[in-house]
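re the bet — no i am not wrong, look at it urself. input seq straight from the record:
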Amino acid sequence: MESKKSFLEMIVEAIKADASRTGTSKQVIVKYLVDQFNVDPEKSKHYIKSALKRGLETEQLKMAKESGKGANSYKLNQIKKPTTAKPKAAKEAKESGESKSPKKPVKAAT
C-alpha cells in the first residue's frame, strides 16, 4: 500500500508532468491533481494554496514571473549544488600564493 503524498509532492509531480517552459499555472496544477489523485477541487483549494506558498518559502518552487502575464504560474527551482573540489583547489592556490610572498621579504630582510 502506497503512502499518501503531501500536496506539495503532488504539485511538484504536476509541474514535472506539464514541463512547460513558461511555468505551470495554478489552474493546470489543480486539473492535474483532480485527474491523477482524485482530489476535490473545492475542498482542496486552501491546501493547494498553502502548499504552493510553502514551496516558495522552502525554495522548491519559484514564480514564473513576479507580475504581469503568467504571474500565477510556478516553476521548479533548479538548485545548483556547489562542487567541493573546485573551491578547495582555488583556496589552496590562493593560500600557497600568499604564503610565498611573505617568505620573500623575510629572506630579503635577513
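see?? DSSP finds four helices and three strands in the chain. told u. also The mean pLDDT is 75. so pay up
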